Amino acid sequence: MFDVGIVNLLDGGERSPEQRLDGGHAALDESTGRVATIEDSRAARFFSTRPEPTKFFSVPVEGKPTLETGLDAAVDTEIIDGFNWELPPVDGSADIPKIPLPTQKRQVLQSLPPHVVLHLRRFAFDMSTFTNKKVDDFFAFPHLLDLRPYTVAGMAARHRAAAAVEGAAL
């Protein structure tokens, strides 16, 4: 049997105070962090950021020796071919035109809660057997963990540093 506080901690932030099992507490709302889904199509200069409340952050484990390499993989860019971008309506039309473009997508931490829950993805889908298999890879945890490099601000600092190195190399 789950404690009411645990249930609210895991999914209560998305419920209204009337729907929460304990009537809602401000402390539970303050425990919510935010994850930002960023979509970027550089070719057409389209950019979208969707912040969403979250209680945890998923980290892949398979083939990753440490938590830091798992976090690097979790915030890595995914290329989506043909992502449908909505264009502004033309001439007051009710139809919203869409254009498919190659797009970079990533999820990063926008704001950190006081306590972070990391969900380790220890199961992987095996396409040959169409079943889930448990990942038994060794996975090391640091004694101290700095999550700033995996936030929106941290990713921006990484990009500025990489651009400075590229500029110096030219």
Observed structural traits:
single chain; four-stranded antiparallel β-sheet; 4 helices; 23% helix; 35% strand
Describe the structure.
- The structure is a single chain.
- The chain has 170 residues and is α+β, with helices and mostly antiparallel strands.
- It has a domain at 31-77 and 107-164.
- The protein is 23% helix and 35% strand.
- The chain has helices at residues 4-11, 26-30, 67-74, 152-169; strands at 33-41, 46-54, 56-60, 78-86, 98-111, 117-121, 123-126, 131-134.
- The strands form 3 sheets. A 4-stranded antiparallel β-sheet has the order 2-1-5-4, covered by helices on one side. It has a two-stranded parallel sheet with strand order 3-6. A two-stranded antiparallel ribbon has the order 7-8.
- The protein starts with a helix and ends with a helix.
- Mean pLDDT is 77; it is low at 1-28.
What's this model, at a glance?
With 170 residues, this protein is of the alpha+beta class. The protein contains 4 helices and 8 strands; from the N terminus they run H-H-E-E-E-H-E-E-E-E-E-H.
Structural class by secondary-structure content: alpha+beta
Question: Main β-sheet: number of strands, strand sense, barrel status?
Answer: 4 strands, antiparallel
Count of individual helical segments: 4
Helical percentage: 10-25%
Anisotropy-based shape: globular
**Poorly predicted spans:** 1-28
| CA distance, first residue to last residue | 62 Å
Strand content: 25-35%
What is the CA-atom radius of gyration, in angstroms?
20 Å
| Strand/helix succession | HHEEEHEEEEEH
The averaged pLDDT comes out at 77
Write out the strand line-up for the largest beta sheet, numbering strands in chain order. Answer: 2-1-5-4
Number of strands: 8
